[in-house]
Amino acid sequence: MNFKLIAKRLSFLVLVIWAASTIVFFVPRLSPRNALRERFAELARSGGFAPGDIEKLITNMNQQFGLDKPLLEQYWTYLGNIIRMDFGYSLNRYPATVTDIISQALPWTFFLLLFTTILSFIIGNLLGAISAWPKSPRWLRGIATPFVLLTGVPPVIMGVLLLFFIGFRLKLLPLGGPYSIGIVPNWSWDFAVDVLRHQMLPALALVLGSVGGWVLSMRGMGVTIQGEDYVNFAEHKGLTGGRIFRDYYLRNTLLPQVTGLALALGTLVTSALVVEQLFGLPGLGQVLNNAIRSNDFPVIYGIVLFITIAIAVLMAVLEFIYPLLDPRVRNQ
Amino acid sequence: MTTVTATSPAIADTAMEQPSSLTLFLRYLNRNRGLAVGVVILIGLVLFTVIGLITINPKHAYPLSVATKQPPSLKYPFGTDFFGRNLMAAMVVGMWQTAVIGVVAGGLGTLIGVVLGFTSAYFGGWIDSTIRTICQILTPIPVLLIQVVVAGSLDKRDVTILTMALIVVMLAWMGPTLVIRAQVLTMKERQFVSVAKLSGVGDIAIIFKEILPNLLPFIAAAFVGQVFSAVFASFYLAVLGLGPLREPLLGNIIWAAQLQGAFFNGWWWWPIAPSIGMILILASLALINMGLDELANPRVRKTE
Hints:
The complex is a heterodimer of chains A (about 325) and B (about 300). With about 325 residues, chain A is mainly alpha-helical. Chain A has helices spanning about 5-30, 35-45, 50-65, 70-85, 100-130, 140-150, 155-170, 190-225, 230-235, 240-280, 285-295, 295-325, 325-330.
């Protein structure tokens, strides 16, 4: 991989992050809502403030956070803060910073996403490849069909249905929450099992909601490869079916799927956020939802920016890995 | 769209009987089963909404209008919720509002996409590279998150069905722009455009008389795709509690049910009806979209 390409990709990454930060900076400032004022109005309703006090408080706060400076100056400070991953303070849980709150919630979201994405990617691509492979047995091909039918069902709705059938009707798995009510988090085996049981339904909802997409795209790709000369050549050389499947078929079809994975990251993350919210898991989704409900604007903007940056960086990483997987790109 | 038009009229008059366009259409639907199923589901949903709007009192879709927490029965086919909404009425009104959001956002998004895609591809040069770069930079940003920022910045009272559609469309025109641009680029090089150019036809006339008619299937597919993503995006926003909270949008109903712990309290019917409604909407749109793709792209079009 040459230097020019790396530079191009990196500058694109910077551009994406800049665009997202700029949108997140200017959109709220164009709106008539004033986060501080709303917050203090709420406090004032709960009692104990003279009307003048609030105004003084707001002026003080504006000074402290530099909100009275010219917009352009604020913008520069803001961009500098973004580079240092400093998203400011939470209005609700002051003095906790947005970064603190994100890092507390992140592990839940991260592991759920990591696990479900890898699982659905593997299952989906294997099923897709098998269902497009002309020599695979009929019953094996049939397995893929129900997953394809599920493609149109968003993971959240899958979550509602799973909650109804498995959680509510059969009472096999809990209805939500990170762990059973009344258990104190500790490092015991029982607690780990309890947490895993609570993670099963959300994970299942996410996996079932995204497997079909991989099956569909993999099958489409597999069909185009069938007529290729190198597959025919391998067959005439007398290679075994398994060998052709693995080295000629999967190898060539998996590459575009990695690009597909990079493109699907945004959708995967947003689905995870909404599903977490549905199941009451304390991940980023619930933090975002709480922030929305209590008008905790710095937290909303912080989470949005953090996720956007994370996705942009991951996409760039996948693009850098790509030449390692594909010798044709590597040798260019 | 038909293959029969290629035969000369003389032969068609004497030897062959031309099938009517309705027969041809039905035959095409038989080949393109996905499209047929999608259209049938969509018609069913439209009938449900229209008949519902006529027969049901829309006021019952709002809180405190009927008895609370009733399980499904003959009187309330989908039950009623914690706030005293008849879920049947809520579904009818919610479907209607979803349709409004989908059509307004989908239409606007497609319109912007077609205009930008045309400008970009037809004129090329710096205009093309600017539009393309903007699309490429905005594409990796998760649309829902930016929509969360926009919806969150609005005053809750300002969030209506219409603003919801505008929020959704704000960041959803990139897809159609790129698709239309790619199609215009290939079409620009075709012979009939060159012939028109050489005969001295102006830019505007070429765009409207030569290229646009050939693009219609693609525009239709892009429109359905846009409606799908608009419905999807507004649903997610509503599930996150960013929708117009007073309105019985399907996502809002699920949000409210989850907030009140519907399953914990045994009110299982509350989130089920909107979930199934949403599955039907999305499935029909996805099937129609795939079917139109097949229609628009002759390479994958099945022959009889």
